Amino acid sequence: MHSRTLADLNQVVALGGGHGLGRVMSTLSFLGPRLTGIVTTTDNGGSSGRIRKSEGGIAWGDTRNCLNQLITEPSITSAMFEYRFGGKGELSGHNLGNLMLKALDNLSVRPLEAINLIRSLLKVNASLIPMSEQPVDLKAIATSGDTVYGEVAIDQLNELPLRLTLTAPVTATHEALLAIADADLIIIGPGSFLTSLMPLLLLEDLTKALRQRRAPMFYLDNLGREFNVAAANMTLAQKVQMMEKAISLEKVIDGVIISPTTATTHLSDRIIIQCPLATVDELHYHDRALLHQALNLALQSLK
Question: Is residue 152 part of a domain?
Answer without folding.
Answer: yes
